[in-house]
Here is the input.
Amino acid sequence: MKSFLQYLGIEPERYQLAWISGSEGQKFADIMTHVVDEIKKVGPNRKLREEHE
Amino acid sequence: MSDNTAKAREIAKKLLQDGTVAMVLGWEKGSEPYVSAPTVVRDAADVDRLVVDEYCIHDLAALLPDYRDHSDKIAIFAKGCDSRGIVRLIQDRVITRDRLYIIGINCPGMKDPNEFIRAASGLSKAKPADKAAKCLHCQYPNPVIYDEILGEAQKPGADQRLTEVDKIESMSADERYDFFIKEFSRCIRCYACRNACVACNCRTCIFDETKPQWVGRSTDPVNNLLYQIVRAMHVAGRCIECGECERACPVGIPLMLLNRKLIKDVDQLFGPYQAGLSLEDEAIPPLSRYRVDDPDEFM
Ligand code: SF4
Ligand code: SF4
Ligand code: SF4
Here is the structure.
């Protein structure tokens, strides 16, 4: 999926997948921070968005 | 009348007369000389409708899901691509092997009636090709599964299926996105690509659902592309590369660029693998089975 979205020109940072168990609170927090950091790096998204006036 | 047509009629007649099958799925001449349309023959007296010529391009296997709830035995003509479709349908439990009598056709490549129709209508200046685009790339012209076979075995052409995919991959991310969005802005959401597809065999299609509505139905470029992303992912690992979706598309969107990318990825991650080549256990599509050592990368 990631490779496919990349093929369509979507930045891979925007699509991330991780397995987190219900008891892994710290891991969840770490991964969320990581995802947000990565997305901030690539900046605002213009792709695959519906344009609304 | 060609040799294959005569033989096809003879076989169909015998199968219907002795009660081996209740119906035969084949092709008959359509409204124009360059159209051979799919047809059903149930009566031995009607077998003279059947033809096997260079315009029998439709994948008959895509019709089999219509009969999934019947119990009739069916005889079906199958070129290389159709036969891979049949294998996939058996693997998806849409139909059982014992309900089918498969008459294989070693396929020299077909002409695309759509090209002739466009040329005749004056809408296109392009001269119809001697071989349809999908046949130029065909690696399995000889049926992989059959009970009886017509014609001489054929040699597949050079394998250039992925050249176009590689070309796209060498573009930058923005160029790729702009390219695809432009192509998909032409989509009219006719769903011909889905209906022609042998791998699209769900009883209720996600795109027909309205509660929830998974993908917007308006024909704007983004929803069109989303539709195709979902469709391509749904047939990933099961697409037999018959090229019927792209051929059915009335606005000429290069759908095989999506399918072949996924074929390439599945082959590299789980392969070597190509869909619908055999009924053996090992040939079950990698995305339809559970394995402890799954590379997990596909997500
Ligand atoms: S894709 Fe292959 S088997 Fe199918 S019609 Fe073309 S040449 Fe024949
Ligand atoms: S996605 Fe296209 S090429 Fe693949 S099986 Fe369906 S119709 Fe054939
Ligand atoms: S066949 Fe072409 S126009 Fe019709 S829904 Fe599919 S991609 Fe869109």
In short: Residues 60 and 161 of chain B are 23 Å apart (CA to CA). Residues 2-150 of chain B form one domain.
